[in-house]
Amino acid sequence: MTKQTYPIKYKEILVTGGFGTVASYVKEVFNNSNVILTNKDSMDVTKPEVVQNTIESVDPDIVLHLAAITDVDLCERDEALAEKVNFRGTENVARICKVYDIPLIYISTSAVFDGKNSNGYSELDSPNPSNVYAKTKLFGEKAIIKTLNRYLIIRAGWMIGGGKKEKKFLSYIVDKIKKGETIRAVNDKFGTVTYAKDLLAFAKERLIKSEFGLYHYGSKGVCSRYDIASLIRDILNKKSKIVSVSSQEFKTKFPAPRPKYEVVRSVKIPFRRSWDEVIREYIANEIV
């Protein structure tokens, strides 16, 4: 990654949800900044007074808001919790940022669209969430747009990142393939892959150019979980059997509705790399 300089006014960065997948790359990408990582214990975004006291104490030049309930099925089971954190928590952060005139970066999701369009969705398309998680993330977007003038909202696709600490689909597949186990992977849901490190680099570029607003970010091409599993098997040069199955097979385990085409594109800044190139780089540099 090419090192970049950027305005001195962004030297102090406060990060909410500072110990998740995206947050794991903040210090590396924003290498010229003093990064303050917070979590629920040090900055509970659902408590306005805590948000205000933390921002007053740190006096950041920008806030990177990553705190969220990202477990889609948990959000479906507990809508009140999802709304409290993803919507009201974001609203709290936005309001305090307004008081102190601090720009806000917010990572949203491609799931805000209903997934009926196989061509994917751009920044010009109207959201229509199909589950509670996406609905509360969209409420967060709207709260920011209503409250702030300087904001950067980035809708990401299927997020990969976090290296060996990550415990999601990709690392699960890698582990099973290494063991030579058979994998059953969904073939009827499609998405855009977003590498968390690249996402932050994209955000940094927007700050350098003072290009605020709403953006989509991901990789070129469309893939299913089956496509990803098959690629990983090829990358690792293993002989695990990959079985193509319908999403209905996992309906009991993952009951929340999910869009068929969780695919995004951008009319502002075209995506630069293909989904398979991104996954190959990630596995080579952080997994193997």
Can you give keywords for this protein?
288 residues; alpha/beta; Rossmann fold; 6-stranded parallel beta sheet; 3-stranded mixed beta sheet; 9 helices; globular
Q: Describe it for me?
A:
This protein is an alpha/beta fold and 288 residues long. Helices cover 37% and strands 17% of the residues. The protein is built from nine helices and 13 strands. The strands form four sheets. It has a six-stranded parallel beta sheet with strand order 2-1-3-4-5-10, sandwiched between helices. The chain has a three-stranded mixed beta sheet with strand order 11-8-13. A two-stranded parallel sheet has the order 6-9. α1 (26-29) links the parallel β1 (12-16) and β2 (34-37). α2 (48-58) packs parallel to α4. The two termini are 19 Å apart. The model has no long low-confidence stretch (mean pLDDT 94).
